[in-house]
Amino acid sequence: MATETQAVLGKMVVDTNPATGEVLAEIPCAGAEEVQAAVRRARAAQPAWQRLSVAKRITVLRKFQHSLRDRTREVAELICRESGKPTAEAIATEILVVLDAAEFCIRTAHRFMRDQPVPHGNLAMKSKRGVLAREPYGVIGIIAPWNYPFSTPAVETLAALAVGNAVVIKPSEFTPLAALELQKLMRLAGLDPDLLQVVVGEGLTGAALVESGIDKLIFTGSVATGKRVAEMAARRLLPVVLELGGKDPMIVLPDVDLDVATSGALWGGFMNAGQTCLSVERCYVHRSIYEAFLRMMIDKIGRLRVGNGLDSEVEMGPLIHARQLAVVEAHVDDAVRRGARLLAGGRRLIELGENFYAPTLLADVTPEMRVIREETFGPILPVAPFDTEQEAIDLANDSEFGLAASVWTRDRKRGEAIARQIKAGTVMINDMISCFGISEAPHGGFKQSGIGRTHGEMGMAEMVQVKYIDSDLLPNMKKVWWYGYGSQFQEQAQALVQALFGRGIVARLKGALLTSGSVRRKTRI
Ligand code: NAD
Hints:
18 helices, 6-stranded mixed β-sheet, alpha/beta, about 45% helix, binds nicotinamide-adenine-dinucleotide, 7-stranded mixed β-sheet
């Protein structure tokens, strides 16, 4: 631990606006000792928070929700400056999502935290009463990415706090201000500052959080980092939720309204400059409408307004940093070299700034291309034709990722039937990405896209440990299955098997009679 502290000593996170290069903040990286101290403070504050009634806890959430609502504009502009996404997008896909997630937690926490009876089917266990009690873990660690710098940690924090946990967040080194804003708003709402702390830093600070003695980790980020984090967590048997990358397919059937489907593909491929875990990263279009689809896409891409997201007319901003841009360029180059048709974009927009890349359309992409195999996370829409429904399903499933998918058709039943055959955590019919804004819906992936769920009641369930409490209602009676084994016991046990599982009513009644007749064994200890 001391070496890690030394490694980050003196290191700064330099937070810059990806659209302009302006330095927004320089914040020292937290070392292992600071992270541990934050977790210790959180642990000390948590029991009192857990003891509060749900009603008192959600009062804080309500105040937070109101102050976020009242500061929508300034928080959205902060997100825009830090991440590059258009302000309108920051409002729609971050602030609205968080306001609604708060509403969901406020509405759900009471019922969720109420003890849940567990009725016993087994006749032999009828003299007992069981309940499930839900208890917070204690301190939840959250490691977050830069692409949804506010909503990702906020939604998880709201669920964790509602059920009585304390939280320590390690935001992305590229977007720490959004998480610090979340912390500020929670403090304004009256939350004890020790119950939500933010430790700023790079990967080492994240690693220090994994090793700090937190009780559960909610990690959102790339598959590569997710695997490293899971290895570290396994050594401590630390429970983790992993929300990782995606390569979401969009299947366009021949009966669609082409205007609607192409507008959907445009938004799904290019919102947040394609840097959304749920972005459309592969588009499969039925051959009968393939060329018409491409023509319409070229036209619509040409009309997209790219620039600094602070300008309300702008629809697509820059990429987060030069490294992301280099990945995008490499994927496009690889695709073109292997025979894809470049129909739009395919170049940097240096005239706008260093991190801008033109919205790009690639046609005739094939399964071996990097743009189909790896997560691109940029403004690229790769499109390929298919002939049969089965071929489209096979293409969609031919990926190591399984976060989400979408099916486009006017025939809802057909769409839903296809959805059931796609290996992904979410499948939407005639929309994409917006599932992230449905607070009741669980969010998470199949295959390499992750483990566990955030959002909705399943996300809340990840924030609690379940305790089963069982009371015997006949405390003066020794149980028939306790010691006192012998031939009598054996007969009695056999009779019980017949009583419970005998073939037909006669066998069961006979078994029941024999069981009750032999309850009093002489040899009981
Ligand atoms: P990343 O994996 O590079 O970083 C994620 C976080 O992990 C950052 O805070 C980073 O500092 C931290 N980190 C890095 N090394 C670490 C280590 N060794 N130990 C602990 N923490 C460490 O991901 P990114 O580039 O910030 O985000 C983009 C990725 O996130 C994409 O793959 C995207 O698909 C994924 N993502 C997934 C979801 C989802 O819900 N499934 C949502 C958003 C983003």
